[in-house]
């Protein structure tokens, strides 16, 4: 069973080392070694459905939970560029191995870092870095994803703080989360841009429930979750940032989250390319190997070209983000291109593997299931095109 590359892609990998800051390149190399050490554990995971506990322990011990947090809180203080490079390496592992890292590098953590009070940060951030306080991001609802204006969850002010009612769906890590960032209308009349607020919810609060799991074709085990709030009493200090400003917080967090998803797709696509190259060199056909066939060579050429373009686009968008050039269209372009190019690369890899590429136990089959969601979450490809065109035509 081919859970990982049999090796031999060193020349290909060397071609992926674009000029990046020395510290980032070093962390990338360290991550590549760590991933290579963890990849053999995929067999056990695929057989049992349980992520070996040493995976989480290894990621925490080596600082990956601290990657996106400022040094003043005990984090590594790495920006969007470093996170992109590291996430692309981690994406060679099954996503279940790094499920907890997504909220820590995505909108939930960014909302807390950018808008939480000093007291809220002191209470949460050290535990997020240590792994003692897993978090989740509660934005999507059963009837609306990207359309925030259709949100039905509400938070009504009362003498004790806020009364939260509603539901969310497709929430990653909800089963394990101890704290959630939850979005709700606090003033329907003000509309989404002035009436949506964000709150910090402790999972132990009465009235909050994890209602069920939604099994997925890949990415998360056992899946993502449906959650609900029935007269959940939140204290006054549960408000995250300013009342009515969360619409802007969502856009702010999603911008960086989209770069992260693009990096995930990049890593999966590059890994698929590595596997396809190795397979083409050893799979016999017509007295030689399929790597001798022009059709296969052209597939590999297209895969390599698109993945190189995706990497350059992502690195450029991340570098500009770190310089303060936080343009929405750049993040959307990077996510759109990387997720679609990565999906094409994985599809080609399955084709190169032939029937084996469709069999459980081969990494390309797992990649085929896992990469599909990257064109949907953190804004679908269609939403990215809307964003790109709107910003260009503005």
Secondary-structure topology with pairs:
Layout: H1 10-14, H2 22-38, H3 42-48, H4 53-61, H5 80-90, H6 101-105, H7 107-115, H8 118-130, E1 135-138, E2 154-158, E3 161-171, E4 179-185, H9 192-195, E5 196-202, E6 208-215, E7 223-234, E8 239-240, H10 246-282, E9 284-285, E10 288-289, H11 294-322, H12 328-353, H13 363-371, H14 381-393
Parallel strand pairs: 1-4
Antiparallel strand pairs: 2-3, 3-7, 4-5, 5-8, 6-7, 9-10
Helix pairs in contact: 2-5, 5-10, 5-11, 7-10, 10-11, 10-12, 10-13, 11-12, 12-13, 12-14
Structural class: alpha+beta
Tell me which CATH architecture of the largest domain applies here: Up-down Bundle
Q: What level of helicity do the residues show?
A: 40-55%
Number of domains: 3
Beta-strand content: 15-25%
At the fold tier of CATH, the topology name of the largest domain is: Butyryl-CoA Dehydrogenase, subunit A, domain 3
> How are the strands of the biggest sheet laid out side by side?
1-4-5-8
What's the number of helices?
14
Taken in chain order, the helices and strands follow as HHHHHHHHEEEEHEEEEHEEHHHH
CATH superfamily of the largest domain: Butyryl-CoA Dehydrogenase, subunit A, domain 3
The major beta sheet can be summarized as:
4 strands, mixed
- Which of globular, elongated, flat, extended, rod-shaped describes the shape? globular
Mean pLDDT: 92
CATH class group of the largest domain: Mainly Alpha
């Amino acid at each position: 069973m081919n859970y990982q590359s049999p090796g031999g892609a060193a020349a290909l990998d060397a071609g992926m080392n674009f000029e990046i800051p020395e510290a980032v390149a070093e962390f990338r190399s360290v991550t590549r070694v760590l991933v290579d050490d963890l990849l053999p554990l995929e067999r056990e995971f695929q057989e049992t459905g349980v992520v070996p506990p040493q995976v989480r322990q290894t990621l925490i011990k080596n600082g990956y939970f601290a990657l996106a947090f400022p040094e003043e809180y005990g984090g590594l203080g790495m920006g969007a560029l470093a996170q992109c490079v590291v996430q692309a390496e981690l994406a060679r592992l099954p996503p279940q191995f790094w499920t907890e890292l997504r909220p820590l590098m995505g909108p939930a953590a960014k909302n807390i870092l950018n808008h939480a009070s000093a007291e809220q940060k002191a209470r949460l951030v050290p535990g997020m870095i240590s792994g003692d306080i897993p978090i989740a991001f509660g934005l999507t609802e059963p009837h609306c994803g990207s359309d925030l204006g259709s949100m039905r969850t509400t938070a009504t002010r009362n003498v004790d703080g806020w009364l939260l009612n509603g539901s969310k769906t497709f929430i990653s890590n909800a089963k394990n989360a101890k704290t959630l960032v939850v979005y709700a209308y606090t003033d329907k009349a003000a509309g989404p841009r002035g009436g949506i607020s964000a709150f910090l919810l402790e999972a132990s609060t009465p009235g909050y429930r994890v209602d069920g799991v939604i099994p997925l074709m890949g990415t998360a085990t056992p899946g993502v979750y449906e959650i609900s709030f029935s007269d959940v009493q939140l204290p006054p200090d549960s408000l995250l940032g300013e009342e009515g400003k969360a619409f802007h917080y969502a856009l702010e967090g999603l911008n960086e989250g989209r770069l992260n998803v693009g990096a995930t797709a990049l890593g999966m696509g590059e890994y698929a390319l590595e596997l396809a190259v190795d397979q083409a060199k050893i799979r016999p056909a017509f007295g030689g190997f399929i790597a001798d066939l022009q059709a296969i060579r052209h597939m590999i050429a297209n895969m390599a070209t698109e993945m190189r373009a995706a990497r350059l686009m992502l690195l450029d968008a991340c570098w500009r983000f770190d310089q303060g050039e936080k343009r929405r269209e750049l993040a959307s372009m990077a996510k759109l291109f990387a997720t679609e190019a990565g999906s094409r690369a994985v599809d080609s890899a399955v084709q190169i593997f032939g029937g084996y590429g469709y069999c459980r136990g081969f990494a390309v089959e797992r990649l085929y299931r896992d990469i599909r969601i990257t064109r949907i979450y953190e804004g679908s490809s269609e939403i990215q095109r809307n964003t790109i065109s709107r910003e260009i035509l503005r």
